[in-house]
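Two proteins were folded this term; both appear here.
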Amino acid sequence: MTTIPGRLRRLDVPAEVLTETQELLREAGTEGLESTVLWLGRLVTSAVAEVLVVVRPRQVAYRTHEGVGVEVPEDALFELIAALPDGIVVLARVHTHPGTAYHSEVDDTNMLIAHDGAISIVVPDFARARIDLERCSVNELRHGEGWVELDAGAVRERLRVR
């Protein structure tokens, strides 16, 4: 059975995961569309996790007169979760926005992960440039408070790129 991670003190992120994340997200961005990926990994301790792989779930990107968006159909998320090997968990959601990175109202309600301490990262400019986590909007879900954006110091402390 897959464990749901609690509020983690640190996520160890290999540099190659950031590179692959950018490549996957940028594909849709070249067409002016948002995209989303999930970081999967394992718990090293109850407070530390290691990202092992980036996965792009089946998704629907759209453009309307109000802007752009991306959604992962419920059945696609269910299939992904059901296929996780024992010990592998969803550690973070990473997606793009045009222009500035911020956690929108749609992002607040269109959650792929909803456990206390979940991490949602928004990458600016459709991931056209190399991902710098301090330029992203990194948010933690705190039950009772909602999504809280982490400041640059907390991002450096909580997400360790190696």
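Next, the second protein.
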Amino acid sequence: MKKIGLFLMSEKGYTTLKGIIDNNLHTLIDLIVYGEDKDILNDYSKEICRLCATNNLRYINRKSFTKYGGSDANMLIAISWRWLIDINKNQKLIVLHDSLLPKYRGFAPLVNALVNGEPEVGVTALYATSEYDRGDIIWQSKLKVNYPIKIAEAIQQISKCYNELLLYVLNNLKEGKEISATKQNETEASYSLWRDEEDYLIDWNLDSHQIRRIVDAVGFPYRGALTRFDDKRLRINDVEILEDVVIENRTPGKVIFYRNNKPVVVCGRGLIQINQANFDGLSETALPLKKFRIRFS
């Protein structure tokens, strides 16, 4: 029977590990390597560690992985992982990537797919190669998206896809079966770029539906969509689309109305009402704002 090493991080990694334990497949695991992500509000690293300790699973932080000589597992599996993993000639590495490859290779694929309004999202299990997300596909699991949807809900839903794929892989390994795979169609490939603080900024020239998808896709557990006014930085957590009106001198980013102390902002097309917001770094609500004439940028 093959020994397995798991590389886990985020809620997806935690949920997948719990699924392995619930299905009594954790006896296959030789070592769990967990990672931390300072860019999200809860990276689930503590939850992963507690789950490992409770079930007597050997686990270490990724920074200690090489220090302890790695793992003698002959099958490595990476879930929601963002760092390179060195393997020896006797090891194979399977990656679970949250897009339907060959589309959205690369970084933040789920966020970018939701921003783009994709009708379906999913997870791909593939063999790793020297070029990221270009390996042969083992299996895919997908689900339809009902918009509007916030990223926290999308992560919960897509975690079921992770569980489905990993149980498929582990059950095959447990039975000693070889896991076959098929090559990707390069003519259908697309790439997904990494995101940083600038990508949280709202472009009010976009239409209201695009802006809402952005707000929903970068909310908790991420930092939240960002806009600026009067040298202040406002994190927008929840918005509502309103019916457009005729504006003779349309200027995206300007507040046009207040409804129940909530500002209504002009977009490139359509109107957005800000329902929940806080000043950057503060947890309490920023609403109602103290003046009417505000231009967001």
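The mean pLDDT is 93. The CA atoms of residues 59 and 246 lie 60 Å apart. These notes refer to the second protein only.
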